[in-house]
Amino acid sequence: MAVMGIDLGTSGVRALIVGEDGVPLAEGRAPLSSPDRPMPGRMEQPAEAWWPQVERAVRQALQAYRADGAGKTSIGGGRAAPGAGPETQTGSEMARAGMTGRARPELRALSVTGTSGTVVFLGRDGRPLRPAILYGDLRAVREAAEVDAAGRSLWRRLGYRMTPAFALPKVLWVKRHEPAVWKETARVVHAADYVVGLLTGEAGVTSESDALKMGFDLLERRWPSEVLTALGVDPARLPRVVPSGAVLGTIGRWAAKRTGLPVGLPVVAGMTDGATSQLAAGAAFPGAWASVIGSTLVVKGVTRTLLADPDGGVYAHRHPDGWWMPGGASNAGGQALVERFGADRLERLSRLARFPSPYLVYPLAGRGERFPFLAPAAEGFVVPVGDPTGPAGAPPGPTSVPAEEAASGSKGEPGEREEAALFAGYLEGMGYIERLALERLLSLGAVIEGPIRVAGGTVRNRAWLRVRASILNRPLSVPAMPEAAYGAAILAGAHVLGQSVAAMVGAWVRPVEVIEPDPDRVSLYEARYRRFVEALRARGFLPDTWSSPKEA
User: Fold this and answer.
1) Does residue 291 surpass a pLDDT of 80?
2) What is the pTM (predicted TM-score) of this model?
3) For residues 480-490, b (16+ Cβ closer than 10 Å) or e, as one string?
4) How remote is the C-alpha of 309 from its chain's centroid?
């Protein structure tokens, strides 16, 4: 038995084939252009650009899977992920030995994962009517307040409040500001739904996980027609919802011809990319938490009951096994690295970077934050460590050379060293936001047990993992294949084998390493984290009423 997981990300598509024992067997990758930001707070991408890259990634994976000498395939290769370095070996490399000479079992199912809160408006012919409004788009501020008021009792029972990052406010925004588009809209779907519709030929089916931010009632498992009607949104325009892990449909002839997938292959309902990355990291049991840094930072865990956030930054997916998966997604993350430094320079800068950086950085791409605090007007900043409340900027200054570079005699150009110092500040800034997120969850009553599971391409950078552990003052567990596509494959595998998702995670996900905090840096980063919080407060991003568990 083999299954496939497809991850439709912001910067690219990945198709991963996994065997019955959880070992990755082949992969395909295809890039996507960076999102458009037509004005502050907005983030769009043409949905039509996704499918050609899905075709490319799937065909590449199938070709590698079926080819003679499977050991030639290099899983986890290609362009480095944001912030990635070459130091930590994960399952991406470890699986190669297991691939060589393996028989190729039949592909039995696939599942698709995509970004949360991204919406696509389809016409009657199933084609997009406008660019997709992405997860990080925060234009719908007024609409979010209106949606939140219309369904306040339901949203509070579900443990959250509607924010501009959610899908339903974006739908209302289009209805109000682009009436011509809304008039022609036959169906509103999410990112993964659009791809699944092309794979199966049935547009307009989604998972409970994707439907969460559209306002789906996860307690009664239905669209709240009374709320939608009050907002003027016809529930018939929203997708049909099935539980994550259920079969959505099968591969149709049109998609089979274009991808090479077999006709009739079951397509299993996935979860959002944050949720599937959480599964891939091993956080599938109550008390377990994962932190995923990809294009954005996502912190998620498992609880036995709903975790309610009166400020609305935390929301909970239904766990396929009946528990809850609360968490939140920041707009800060790896996309800020790509936009500031360029994807082709990240690995080089990772090698040059030395910690600690002389800068405090809030690594926000675009404008607006959604978690661990809601601030539609928030903007990223770079300030000297000694002046966290001063004006933003990155004044040049002397920087030290990393020990490994000094030892090898390769110090880099002076300008490049200054860039590496700023790059290190961006990495540390992600750690500060990560800690702020965990402290927010603790303040809401979350139970966090054991190490934090880490996922996303950034786990390749061992030096940064040590810095993150020191900032959090918690150990980090590095799983073998901590990526969203692998989590999607877990869902497909659970369906084929008739296992619970937790059982699949227990059987497939294994830690490669546990990274402990550096005792010599914990106090240093404690002080710097406090300065970072001070900088957020001084700019009005973080409310004065916010306090960490230690301050409370």
Assistant:
1) yes
2) 0.79
3) bbbbbbbbbbb
4) 20
